[in-house]
Amino acid sequence: RSTARTTTTTWSEGRWAGKRALEFRSTGDRVRFSVPGEHRATTCILWVFVEEMPHPYHSLLHSVAQRPGEVRWSLNQDGALGVAVRGTMNPGGPSFHRVVTQAQPLREIVGRWVCFGLTYDSETRVLAHYRNGELIYPSQLPPGAFPAVYGIVELANWGVDPQEPKESKEAIPE
């Protein structure tokens, strides 16, 4: 059994009438959970309501496994989706395989609910981004792609420090 912990988030009206959603307003708002193990193939799906995008990059999902296969997924200020998957360690630091989609029309993202999806398959070397169920950017991973490794994950924030104590408001059952 796994649980997620929220920090400073609040509940608000969700995508469908009568359903709730977590609201992320400040940099401290987050949901933290653990995804143990290595995963040959993963699918991530998030429903988000974007009110504004004041920064160049906005984290959708960010892991800090700090080993090959670590996944970082973001929404960029121009509406592009980006993902970075950690590769091998080089003398200058870790390498990342980065995939960024073309910019998406902001009128289709800001001020509305949007479903973003990401699929990652290290065996077939396919990485794909989706918006509202439509494939918007298929891409190939390099040969020797690592299985996805998440470890401790946060939704909606950069800079996870697994040692940092968090004030958790509420546990969310799996």
Report on this model:
By secondary structure, the chain is mostly beta strands. Helix content is 0%, strand content 56%. It has no helices and 14 strands. The strands form three sheets. The chain has an eight-stranded antiparallel β-sheet with strand order 9-8-7-6-13-4-1-14, with no helix packed on it. The protein has a four-stranded antiparallel β-sheet with strand order 5-10-11-12, with no helix packed on it. It has a two-stranded antiparallel ribbon with strand order 2-3. Strand 10 (113-121) and strand 11 (126-131) form a beta hairpin. The protein is globular and about 45 Å long. The termini are close together. Mean pLDDT is 84; it is low at 160-174.
Topology, element by element:
Layout (H helix, E strand, L loop, with lengths): L2 E5 L2 E4 L6 E4 L6 E10 L1 E9 L7 E7 L7 E6 L4 E10 L2 E8 L12 E9 L4 E6 L2 E7 L7 E8 L14 E4 L1
Antiparallel strand pairs: 1-4, 1-14, 2-3, 4-13, 5-10, 6-7, 6-13, 7-8, 8-9, 10-11, 11-12
List key phrases describing it.
globular; four-stranded antiparallel sheet; 174 residues; disordered C terminus; mainly beta; 0% helix; eight-stranded antiparallel sheet
